[in-house]
Every structure is written in C-alpha cells, then in structure tokens.
Amino acid sequence: MSATDTARVTAPGRARTGRRPAPVRAAGRPSPLTARRRRLFWPLLLPAVLVYVVFFAGPSLYTLWLSLNEWAGAGPMTFVGLDNYRRMFQDPTFHHAFANTLWIILGVGAVTFLVSFVLTMFLRDMKGRRAARSILFFPNIVPSVVLAILWGFLFQSDGLVNAVARAAGVSEPPNWLGQEHLFSVIMVGLVWTSTGFYTTILMAAVDQIPPELYEDCELAGANALQKFRHVTLPLMWDVVGVCAVLWTISAVKVFEFIYAFAGAAGQMPDTGVWNTALYTYGEAFASGGVPRYGSAAASAVVMLALVGVLVVLVRRVMRRDSVQF
User: Residues 162-176: pLDDT tens digits?
Assistant: First the structure.
C-alpha cells in the first residue's frame, strides 16, 4: 500500500466522506446561542426586578422604618426607636391576637389538612369526582366577605344550624354568636372555606400517581387507609409541603372573614376574636382615636417575621429525599 493510500485510510472522516471534520471551538468561548441568552438575561429580568423592588422590597423597608417612628398619618414623624415594639409586646390585646393567630395556623390548619386527606381518599375512586372537586372548590370562587355574611346567617338564633339542632332534640341551642363561641365558629368557617382549595391541589397530585401501585395494594389486600399511608401520602409529600407553606402564609393574613363575620356596620369586631391582621388594622385605623401607624407597622413587621420563621420550620420539618415512581 502506497503512502497516499495509507493517508486516505487513516485520515479521520476524510476517506469515507470526503468532507473536512467540523472545526473545534476555542476553549472557553461560548456558543452563539449561549451568548444571545446572556445578552437577553438582564433585559428580560430587569422588569421583574423593578416590580419586586417597587411593590415589595421598597414598601417592606419603609414599613420597617415606619415601625421605628410615631406617626398619625399626617405631619412630621417622631423617631421613637423600639418603643412601638415594646408597647406592642406589653399590650394584652396583642397577646390575645397573637394567640388567636397561632390557633388559626395550627388548629385550623390541622383540621383543614385532616379533612382534605379524608376527602382525597374518598374522591380518588369515586365516580363523578370532577364534579365533586368543583363543588368543594366553590367557596374559593366566592369573595370572603360574602361567605362571612352567609356564615353569620347560618349561625343566627333562628338560623339553619339552630333549626337542625332543635330538630335533633336540642331545646336550647347555644348562642353561637356570643363571645364564648364566636371564635370557635370563625375557626370552623375557615376550615369550610379552605378545605376545598387544598383538596383540589392534593387531588391534582394524586392523579399523577400510577394506578398500578393501587392495583398492587388491592392484590395485597390493603384497605383504603393503608393505601393512603403507604402509597398516596409518600408520593404526594412534596405537594403537601407546598400546601403547608401556602396555608402558613395565608393563615397569618386572614382578615376579611373575621372582620365581616364578627364586626358590625362600620365597627371593628370585639378584641376577643382579633388576630394579628385585625390588630394591625385596628392600630392603623383606630375608630374614635388617633391612628398609630408606627404601632401598626411594628405589628406588620412581626407578622412578616412570623411568616418567615414558620415557613423555614415547615420546609425543614417536611424536607426529605425525592421519591421516584
């Protein structure tokens, strides 16, 4: 074999195709697509950053500064340092409002997720579950103020709840709208308005679980509770964690339902049913008094810190390795 023939055989990519090999890109030099992406990064990101700074970061920093001042909404501010926080933490009304907020987060949240899990077990195999989801989700379409008014009609002395109680043999039903039962009725109403939302999200996660896993459980003789414990809950655990974070954030901000249900026309509800959101509103728009925007801002900062701490705790508690199926 001649030298020319040897070169034809050994030259990579040239003996068979007759084409030159693709040129090797210089080390460290990005491709044209990567370069275009880098040029578009800031132009596309900048509007979102501006919206975040203007509508969230800026007002949050201003609220923090306002919490260190005394201000009635007009006139100059007076810097008072941590006096607003000191007065707030010594206020029994704030103590009660903070306790009510924890009751909503933990108590109402636990019952809401328990009911959502039970509904998830039944809806998975139920015929017409799409219609059932729509019915459960309906309270989230209606404004909270309307739901609060409806809830008040149900628990009036001559409302549907007392009518059912009298039909069941209770001669003197409780005064549900009295101060001793009012906050309990509010918590039940929050469970009612929230369960459909989280059930819908959890059912969306359940729909992604392969049905073969449930068929294997049926062959093994597992009941509905065992299927939920060993299949459904582990495979939708990440979605449960997201729902827990969403609930924590929304529970701290509950306002319209309590205000419309327990308050009178143009008047704040009794302080016994206040949460931190209503306490903040009461400080900022005190009826018959001078508004205390500094104290309201301090309460808002505490609410933000509470949300941050609880979200971090929830994420740590519910963190685990991902499950593949």
Answer: 999 998 888 888 889
